[in-house]
TrEMBL record:
Residues 173-289 form the LD-carboxypeptidase C-terminal domain. It comes from the Bacteria. This is LD-carboxypeptidase. Pfam families: Peptidase_S66, Peptidase_S66C. InterPro entries: Carboxypeptidase_A_C_sf, Class_I_gatase-like, LdcA_N, Peptidase_S66_N, Peptidase_S66C, S66_fam. Belongs to the peptidase S66 family. SUPFAM superfamilies: Class I glutamine amidotransferase-like, LD-carboxypeptidase A C-terminal domain-like. Keywords: Carboxypeptidase, Hydrolase, Protease, Serine protease. The keyword Hydrolase applies.
């Protein structure tokens, strides 16, 4: 069955900001609160904000209880993850989604929040892979922020991207799935693992060694995550690392090496990932990917 979408936000709705992974202070979130209020929303800062346990936004149980509280509160219409980092996989199996179908709401974030995006899609619900509150005021991120607003409020979204020399032409339709490559590998075989068959997969990552990108792509291929794709979108692979002896390929070339085993269309250079130009993608939403000599277009159906 197709993944279901929560109702679009409306002016006056209440939204929560929580820290399921790394910590974020109220001072760091002040700009995001101002932006959300300018959209007509009322903002609740969860108990996991403005608290720190080592790198985390509180101990595991604190972060879990805060997320669960916002998840179960019918007055909260969206939950925004303040930032990524690491930590969501430590608590995901203790979160109870049994009441979510009765009160679905938008959950948004990226990077470590790929865990939530995939877990929700496995349960049959759409969510948003998009810019997080800690980054709302980053220079050059205005288009990304607007794309998040449009996704949350149910407005029409269509993306057009310049051609890339590694692109493989073609058209694909399917639900969007994906996010951070290292998280997708980490989730394999868990309760948050999600099928990619017949779907359009998008990938991004940051600070990974080139050999590690290859190793993760080998893993995706060996677990048949690439075999039955409808299409592939390659986003930002920011700040890739290399060894003293160079690996010899760029992240895009590594990924294309494995994509070349199959025939689905491939779009490189898509603006999604750990850079200011990080356009919101709705995981679980059916879309059409068109890769032509003139560039790439992505539109929801």
């Amino acid at each position: 069955m197709p993944a279901t979408a929560p109702a679009p936000l409306r002016s006056g709705d209440q939204v929560a900001i929580v820290c399921p992974a790394r910590s974020a202070s109220h001072e760091e979130l002040a700009a995001a609160v101002a932006v959300l209020e300018s959209w007509g929303l009322r903002v609740v800062l969860g108990d996991s904000t403005n608290i720190r346990h080592h790198q985390f936004g509180g101990e595991d149980d604190m972060r879990r209880r805060d997320f669960q509280q916002q998840l179960d509160n019918p007055d909260i219409r969206a939950i925004l993850s303040a930032r990524g980092g690491y930590g969501t996989t430590r608590i995901i199996d203790q979160i109870d989604f049994s009441r979510f179908a009765d009160n679905p709401k938008w959950i948004a974030g990226f990077s470590d929040i790929t865990t939530l995006n995939c877990h929700l899609l496995r349960l049959g619900h759409q969510s948003i892979h998009g810019v997080m509150p800690l980054l709302f005021d980053q220079a050059g991120g205005e288009d990304s922020l607007e794309s998040l607003r449009r996704a949350l409020f149910g407005e029409t979204v269509r993306y057009a991207v310049s051609a890339h020399p590694l692109n493989r032409l073609g058209t694909a339709t399917g639900e969007l799935v994906g996010g951070n490559l290292s998280l997708l590998q980490t989730l394999t075989g868990t309760q948050s693992d999600v099928s990619t068959a017949g779907r359009i997969l998008f990938l991004e990552d940051i600070d990974e060694y080139l050999y590690a990108i290859d190793r993760m792509m080998v893993h995706l291929d060996r677990t048949n995550k690439l075999r039955d794709l409808a299409g592939l979108i390659v986003g930002h692979f920011t700040n890739p690392q290399d060894n003293t002896v160079p690996y010899g390929q760029t992240p895009n070339e590594i990924i294309q090496h494995y994509a070349d085993k199959y025939r689905f269309p491939v779009a490189h250079g898509f603006p999604v990932g750990h850079e200011p130009h990080n356009m919101a993608l709705i995981c679980g939403r059916k879309a059409r990917l068109t890769v032509s000599p003139d560039g790439t277009q992505l539109e929801y159906l």
